[in-house]
Structures are given as structure tokens and as C-alpha cells.
Design a protein that fits this description.
This protein has no helices and 13 strands. It has strands spanning 4-7, 10-13, 18-24, 30-36, 43-49, 54-56, 64-69, 74-79, 88-95, 100-101, 104-105, 113-114, 118-123.
């Protein structure tokens, strides 16, 4: 069992920046950030493998950066040029297996470990 604890959310104006952190109690092969806005489905934001490779959803490419400190078992999400549409609850998730299977990103339901979430609110 891996426990995840997010921190770093808050309220910022459009164009601002925030950095989220996720402290994990153990090692996992795949870690990811998801987000869920009111009335919308949970969506992946970015994921990172143990080898440092990462992928991003199109809407955040060039603005968000995911990173991982394996020594500290901590995942980060640096968010720049924030937009109102980035407003959501952000969740850290992890799984022992890979992030992808046969070229397809594995869905949220395949991640057994989740943090409690941290709110990000961007005002225009």
C-alpha cells in the first residue's frame, strides 16, 4: 500500500504559477497527476515513469512540467501560464505497473493509489 499526500494548491490569477507536490510513502513505476473540474470527468494531466520519461495532455503542453525526485519519492507539477480552464481539483496517483500498455495510456481506474486532492483555482 502506497500513501500519497499532495500539497501546493491555491488560488492565482490567470497567467500565474503554482507548483504542486506529491509525497509518496513507497516506490512506484508510474506516477501521474489527474484533475477533475466540477461536472467533468477526471482527466490525466501528466505522467512520469521511474526512468524520467513523461507525457502530457495536449492542453497543458508547454505550460506544465512534471518532475520526480526518486530519492525523496516525491512527484511535482510546475504549472505556468495558468488559465481559468485549469481550475480543478488536482490528484496525484500511482501504480506499480507501467503508465502505458501497448501504446495506450492506462486510465484512472487502473491506478490503485490516490491522494486526497488539492484545489487549484485560477481567476481571470
Amino acid at each position: 500500500q502506497v500513501q500519497l499526500q499532495e500539497s501546493g494548491g491555491g488560488s492565482v490569477q490567470s497567467g500565474g504559477s503554482l507548483k504542486l507536490s506529491c509525497a509518496a510513502s513507497g516506490d512506484t513505476r508510474c506516477m501521474a497527476w489527474f484533475r477533475q473540474a466540477p461536472g467533468k470527468e477526471r482527466e490525466v494531466v501528466a505522467d512520469m515513469r521511474m526512468d524520467g520519461s513523461s507525457t502530457y495532455t495536449d492542453s497543458v503542453k508547454g505550460r506544465f512540467t512534471i518532475s520526480r525526485d526518486n530519492g525523496k519519492n516525491t512527484l511535482y507539477l510546475e504549472m505556468n501560464s495558468l488559465k481559468s480552464e485549469d481550475t480543478a481539483m488536482y490528484y496525484c496517483a500511482a501504480r506499480y505497473g507501467p503508465c502505458f500498455y501497448r501504446g495506450s495510456r492506462l486510465p484512472a481506474r487502473t491506478f490503485p493509489f490516490w491522494g486526497q486532492g488539492t484545489q487549484v483555482t485560477v481567476s481571470s
